[in-house]
Each structure stands twice: as C-alpha cells, then as structure tokens.
Amino acid sequence: MNVPLWVWAVTIAAVAAMFVFDFFAHVRTPHEPTFRESAFWSAVYIGIALIFGAGLWAVWGPGHGAEYFAGYVTEKSLSVDNLFVFLIIMTTFAVPRIYQQKVLLVGIAIALVLRGVFIWVGAAAIERFSWVFYVFGAFLVYTAIKVAREQHDPDAEYHENRFIKLVERIIPTTPDYHGDRLTVVQAGRRLITPMLVVMIAIGSTDLLFALDSIPAIFGLTKEPYIVFTTNAFALLGLRQLYFLLGGLLSRLVYLSVGLAIILGFIGVKLILEAMHTNEVPFINGGEHISWAPEIPIWVSLSVILGTLLVTIVASLVKTRYDRRLAGVGDETQLPPTA
To answer: 0.85 exceeded by the pTM?
Structure first.
C-alpha cells in the first residue's frame, strides 16, 4: 500500500479540522447535549468513517478495504469499553455536565496525538523485528483473559495514575472549578483548575487503552495509514457516543466477554502470522513454520462483527430479563449528573 506524503498530510489536516469544527460548533458554548443532538452527530461521524472506508476500498482494493473496516469496528468497540472509565473519571472529579463535552474533546485530542507516536513506534518495530508479532500476540491473549474477568461498575472508584499524581504534586491546583477555565490567577499565582487535570486524566487514561488497541489493529493490518485512520475515526465522535449511550452502558453486561473473544482471536492471529515469518532461533530453529494456518481478513471481519452482534443481543436480552424479574421499568437514563 503506497500512500503518498500529500495523502498523509491531507488526512491529518482533515482529522484536525474535524476536531476544530467540533470545538467551535458544539463545545465552545458550554451545554449538555440532547439525545437527538448526540445521535445525529454520532451518525455523521460514523458515516464519514464509512465513506472514507469505501474510498479506501476503491483506491487500494478490497483487501485493504476489508482491513480498514475490520480495524475500525474493533477500535470503535474498544472505545465503547473506554467510556465506562471516562464515566468514572467524570464522576470522581465531579465535572459539571455542561463542561463534560470540552473535557472529552480535549482529552481525546491529546490521546490521538499520543497514539500517533505509538503507531509510528509500533510500525518501525514491526518492520525491523518480526518477533514483535509474538510479543503483541501474547500480550493480546493475556489482555483478553484480563478483560474477560473485568466487571464494569459505573460507581467504581477511579484511582489516579502516576502521571496525574505527578502533575498535581508539581503544579499548584485549585480545589474548585472556575467555569471551563483551565488556569486562574489567585494571590498573584497562576494555578491550574480541576478542569485541566481531568482533561489530562482522560488523555493519559486513553493512552493506557492504546496498549491494547494498537497491537490489536496491527494484528489486522500492517499498514500504518490504516492503523492511524481507524484510530482517528474511532476517537472522532467518541464524545457524542458518551452522551448517546448514557445508561445503555450499564446494559452491555457481556461487552467484556465479547471484547475478550475479539482480542484473543486477534492475539492468536498475530502469533500464527509470526510463525510464517519466524526468525527466532529457539523456535523451529529460526525457520518459518509452514503448517501454521493463515487467517484471511474476511474471516477476521466476520468473527469481529459476529461476536459484537451476539454480545449486544445477549446483553440486552439478559438485562431486560433481569429488569422484568426485578419489576424495574425499561427507561434509559443518561449518565448521572456529576
């Protein structure tokens, strides 16, 4: 896949322009988005991602097109899982609802820049060291087991990572919010507000999620351009998705199981591909392993879509059945006001 430099430049500029548009059109004026607004703009961003995929399919062929769609669905699914943690962070920091859009948008922008660095490093490592596939594959299998055991609880306690603790220790911080301002001057000193801290928390936490998502996408494609665009389009619209899904997050009770199956499948696929290009001396004498099966991209796409469909349907059926047993209504609530 030969991607000219100018295509990279145009793509990055277009992604940046969408973030800028999102800020001035929706975030600059603080407000809590309605369900209708969130649904409309979620559909718009998903539509843009699908149109881009169709164009990539037409220009670079069905093979790369299928890789893009498999990668986009996987990254979007993992981003939904991230929303649970975002909700916990918002609640912990008591972010007012009207400012949560700004927190999410800036935090996601920070995450995309940091993911870009991860993608560049990962692509360079894969190009030089074929054994990296073994590492990525084993890590994804381990992550799949860990994810399968997770229980998402919106009321769980958020524990600040070391980076956030370092920021709060080094830079003086105000205890209260001052509108949506990031810094204020008090007694002649420039202080940062909790608004800036929570933005950094969202961005740095999403970077930790990239440790799962970046190896996963490299398990579906080796093309840095596809890796970047799938990550970018998965993150674009994540803000709207946060408000759109709302209480539905608590109903996706089998989401962790579904994501574990997908990550485990991609992990095994990476290990099998590593066997085809094996250069590790203590594995088969450094020779490639011819009997290792090769999983085509259409199989990967089918497994990913099928797993997600079963996961969503089973989750909704389970929660509806539980609600009926408990005599609870079926109303959908937005995330609780922080």
So the answer is: no
